[in-house]
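Recap for those who missed Tuesday's class. We walked through two folding examples back to back. For each one, the amino acid string is listed first and its predicted structure tokens come directly after. Nothing is annotated here on purpose, so try labeling regions yourself before you check the end of the notes.
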Amino acid sequence: MKFIFPQNYQFKNKLFGMIDYSTAIFDVLWCLLIYGITIPFSDISVKCIIFIICCFPILLISLVGIQHENFLYVAYYFIKFLCNRKVYLYKK
């Protein structure tokens, strides 16, 4: 079966149709980092609370997105803005 896509359609590969692969890899690495940080704690409830507090907001923003933009791009633009607030408009 052949499908015809319009010229202005941007086809992006997504994991389960919801999240970009680069964002999914970032989420997995972030959760593994938080899990590695929580290993020294002996109480399981402390581990769960720290894991949920640190990972859930990132996962939620990744799934919902900001204006259908990739989460990593938004984070990059935000950090770039914080570093240099005097650049408001850039034209070539």
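Example two. Treat it independently of the first, because the proteins are unrelated.
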Amino acid sequence: MLAVGSSFGFVGAGYVGGKWFEAAKYGLMFGLVQMFASLGSAVGQPAISAMLSIMSWKRLLAGFGAFGVLLTVAFAFIVRNPVSTPQEQAEAAAAHRGNVIGEILSDLGRCFRNRQVVLAALLAGASFGTMLAVGVLWGPRVQEARGASARYAAVLSAMAWLGLAAGATLVNVVSNRWHSRKWPAVYGLVLQTVAVALFIYGPAKTPGVSIVVMLAVGLFAGTHMLGFTIAGKTVPAALIGTASAVVNGICFIIGGVLQALPSRWLPDQPTLTDYRHALWIMPAVLAVGVLCALALRERPRDRG
């Protein structure tokens, strides 16, 4: 239930918000949504650790649930649809005459048959999946294995989410300046690979370096936002939401695999050396993401 709600929340915020802007601002809008999501994670991890010292998990989660109800009510009263032209209303009505499930499967099939969408989803999945694995699970554990306290390890993970908050908006600005989606994605993934390799195999305990490395991991993970932009620009307008959902789904599938798989190679009481032997899969996945970015076709429609 948490995963389903999160999927609607993230993609819904980016897609619905993007409806209020012209197509050129669609990527930037998604970047802003990711920025606020990342800031929530950055603030949330240390804040949750602090709140758990004065309340139970049950009370904390009940508070989150109550806030969600208030947010839903506020959304229903405040958010409205943009005014559509008669032609847009007619097109929307014509596009939604069939069975809902069949319509969803048909749209998904059209997206998966689009080579650019698949490559965009894979490069975004490699980038964000690695960030998710580091920011949620392996970051604190590796830092604790290096000798950091649990609280300081949480702060370092928050640094990665702060980096992502900056990178999610910056990457689209760079992409627009370069008039390219492909090469910012390639360079961003290469730099993220270097940052993740330093996170895993870098100095055992150097606080200042750890902060910089974790910021870099998040900053270059902002590259995954180009996956949404590329996918959205290579499908008809009616499929933009579905293409965004495909990219988002692949991001979380890869993130889930990168959180679960390394644990199979770890002993019950892992050391830093054990983590280094098990987490090689993250730079490897990012290297695959680089190849996917290189395979993208740069077309005039993908630029701007």
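Answers for example two:
DSSP finds 13 helices and no strands in the chain.
Residues 115-145 form the longest helix (31 residues).
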